[in-house]
Amino acid sequence: MMKKAILFSLVLMLHSVAQADELLMEKSSRSVSETIDRVEAAAKDQGFVIVARVDHAAAAAKVGLTLRPTALLIFGNPKVGTLLMRCDQRVGIDLPLKALAWQDKDGQVWLGATNPAALKSRYELDAACDAPVASAQKVIKELMDYGAKGS
């Protein structure tokens, strides 16, 4: 019985390690607003449509609450999203793509986005979907690099 428990634990650990990190994160050297501005500009340059921009801190202030600077950008491109949804239409719950910039309690600004590679494990996508997932991941990483670090 003990051997089975150890084997089961080992399998669970290996499965966890094999799964992609759900969230890609990068430190930004800019303010939350500047970081999201840069992601938005780069997304537009790459043919993405900006669906919405949400200033969570401003929304909190409107109801008398405080929140450190936090902003969300929602953007999409049917050329990318459709390929992912053709793999499994449930992926549509994670689309359009999103980028979140926030300032932590120490004043550091971060930029985060869902890792498209996580969609592969979340929806158990087969190998035929590797190319669209890799393409989406490449685009997200480029946008994040530009938003957080690019010159």
From TrEMBL:
Residue ranges annotated for the DUF302 domain, each copy included: 54-116
Signal peptide residues on this chain, from the entry's feature table: 1-20
Keyword terms, alphabetized: Signal
Keyword Metal-binding: no
PANTHER family named among the record's database cross-references: INNER MEMBRANE OR EXPORTED, SLR5037 PROTEIN
Protein name in UniProt: CrcB protein
